[in-house]
Specification:
The complex is a heterodimer. Chain A is mainly beta. Chain A has no helices and eleven strands. In chain A, 0% of the residues lie in helices and 49% in strands. Chain B contains no helices and twelve strands. In chain B, strand 5 and strand 6 form a beta hairpin. The chains are: A mainly beta, B mainly beta.
Chain lengths: 115, 112
Amino acid sequence: DTGVSQDPRHKITKRGQNVTFRCDPISEHNRLYWYRQTLGQGPEFLTYFQNEAQLEKSRLLSDRFSAERPKGSFSTLEIQRTEQGDSAMYLCASSFGTGVGDTQYFGPGTRLTVL
Amino acid sequence: AQSVSQHNHHVILSEAASLELGCNYSYGGTVNLFWYVQYPGQHLQLLLKYFSGDPLVKGIKGFEAEFIKSKFSFNLRKPSVQWSDTAEYFCAVNGGFNKFYFGSGTKLNVKP
């Protein structure tokens, strides 16, 4: 069990550029979550996948954000036309379950800085 | 909408002191409650969780939390803290589906 991994760990970009982050969950986990965390705040839910289906999406996720989990394994989160307000830590978590309230295992996060 | 409040943003204690961190949530239905911890330089990890049954839940490293439904609270406690408990603690709630709401966190600093 190698845990949840995220790539890259840090990303610096200029305003208006597109960025893509990758998350590799724990191998047998069927659920995958994306969160955003800004300084002094807890993680804010962005979206959730069960296998390849995106089942929940926060209103925080504007049209510029898109997430995929094409084969029910790794996931990508893309932000188009980045803005300074997108600067945050983007966390991925995975879990195994069929009900609610699974134990989520978090990755180390990708820190995005938009200049 | 659900929300979680953690009123203590920063707590400083000496070793062996007792700890209680407050967590209140707003949601009218059945909830699942969690405490996560983030040690310096590490990922968020689960400390303990409540689904149903005994409202006093025991977790790792001597932590426990009590669910008081009438007060919408899920406070975290530890009788005697150690320097290694220095970390940030997050309360989270999940009330249906798999959408989780986290509090803003409490930074605990334990002085040796």
